[in-house]
Design goal:
With 304 residues, the chain is α/β, with parallel strands linked by helices. The protein is 34% helix and 28% strand. It has two domains: 45 residues, no CATH class; 212 residues, von Willebrand factor, type A domain (Rossmann fold). Helix 3 packs antiparallel against helix 10.
Length: 304
């Protein structure tokens, strides 16, 4: 028996075998994932619009120290040229500023600096001003100090010691420390303001503030600056008077001490005394800049 089979007609495509061997492309394979990728890209765009940031948030810094308010006279008499630095006569304010700077930062010798202390800066002439609140950022504090100048108008001149004491005591009152100290530097007597220095000292004492007072400059005659109406300054020999009795009263009422400074080295006794003060734990805040994250998130979304 013979069985006859007829072959089916066919057309040959030489490249078809290569296509089969190549298999499915990545685009085809990933096609089912496209909705998911679009969703991720959309979500990334939403996140980018929210402007994400990363970095270190506000952190609490703990350190051992005390709260100190530096209260500095900037009346025209502080321009008197009668204090010595390296055997040269300089004006009183420059001496005070230099001593304050070393007190805060240290001098690489006997003064170690007040790194762990909260320090604020106050000035006064006819009016008292708070230039810097209590802070652990001593670099910023020194920058404020460098800008301190003697008052430039006659109507701003005067010596409101009592008002300055009250202003600084109010700032110290709110400090979360057990030791509160004020260092008052002046070269004269109270002749302006609403509060007498003795009454202000009682307020400071009630707030738990110990006041160290410093009489800066010479007694008798000194070359004193005088401001004219046009703002120009001339120097004339003038009789000067430091109310040491009042400054002693203020210090003793608060448990502090009065110092007399006729040169920069004369302030070192203050540093030694403050170094002996009780320390306590302070908590300050440090801020760091954030890095913007949205460009990276947006770039990721565009790549998708």
């Amino acid at each position: 028996v013979h069985i006859w089979r007829q072959d089916q007609a066919s057309i040959s495509f030489p490249g078809l075998r290569n296509i089969v061997k190549a298999g499915t492309t990545w685009a085809v394979r990933l096609q089912p994932l496209l909705p998911v990728l679009r969703t991720i890209a959309l979500a990334a765009c939403v996140v980018a619009l929210a402007r994400p940031q990363w970095g270190v948030e506000t952190t609490n810094i703990y350190s051992e120290g005390i709260a100190i308010a530096m209260v500095v006279d900037i009346s025209t008499s502080m321009g008197a040229i009668d204090l010595e630095v390296d055997d040269e006569k300089v004006n009183r304010l420059d001496v005070v500023k230099g001593a304050f700077r070393e007190f805060v930062e240290g001098d690489d010798k006997e003064v170690t600096g007040r790194e762990g202390d909260l320090i604020g800066m106050f000035t006064f002439a006819r009016y008292a001003d708070a230039l810097s609140p209590l802070t652990l950022d001593h670099k910023a504090l020194v920058k404020v100090l460098e800008e301190v100048e003697i008052v430039g108008l006659p109507e701003e001149d005067g010596t409101a010691i009592g008002d300055a004491l009250v202003l600084a005591a109010e700032e110290l009152r709110n400090a979360s420390v057990s030791s509160r100290v004020m260092i008052l530097l002046t070269d004269g007597s109270n002749n302006a303001g609403d509060t007498s220095p003795v009454d202000a000292a009682r307020v400071a004492d009630a707030f738990g503030v110990k006041v160290y007072t410093i009489g800066a400059g010479s007694q008798g005659q000194a070359m004193m600056p005088q401001i004219s109406r046009d703002g120009s300054i001339t120097y004339h020999p003038t009789q000067v008077y430091i109310d040491e009795y009042m400054l002693t009263q203020v210090a003793e009422l608060t448990g502090g001490r009065y110092f007399r400074a006729t040169d920069r080295e004369g302030l070192e006794a203050i540093y030694t005394e403050i170094d002996r003060l009780e320390t306590t734990t302070n908590m300050g805040e440090q801020y760091q800049r954030y890095t913007e994250g949205f460009p990276w998130v947006l770039a990721f979304a565009l790549l998708l």
